[in-house]
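One example given next:
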Amino acid sequence: LKEDAALSLRLLRYINAAANELAEHVSSIERAIFVIGRDKLYRWLILLVCSMDTPSGRSSAALESALVRARMLELLSADRSPYEREALFLTGLLSLIDVILEVPMDKALGPLAVTPEINLAVRHGEGPYAPLLELAIACEQFNGTCIADAAARCGVSPAIASERHLEALSWALAIQE
């Protein structure tokens, strides 16, 4: 990181984003890595890969949608373990990685060591993480019937699902500033 000034600046910008709600400003790479921790560093690196400059505006819009999905899944899993919340965040983020990177899903996911649960949800819409991903997609499409059906499968009310979607949208916009 120290050898790549742009990468270092991106890390400091990410860690100091208002969305992270840190009590103090982080000004060193070492402190940023310590504060962010291993799991969030992995998350940030995937975000970085997804946000690499691409010629298509479609990729930028897909990244925003993926960030909203990721944060929404994380918010809806507040009662789960930190490991599972992180896995759900990655599920949402990776759900559009093929569109973001403009490559087939197999090629996009190939170099990443994702868990079977993430793989099943992202590639096939199956497994334990799929219902929450379906709910995020329903909220994204503003389809009331689909939101109600997906929310029922997840055990949350449509109102809570909509609230979490708006919170996720706000968060995604804040970290992209």
Observations:
- The two ends are 22 Å apart (CA to CA).
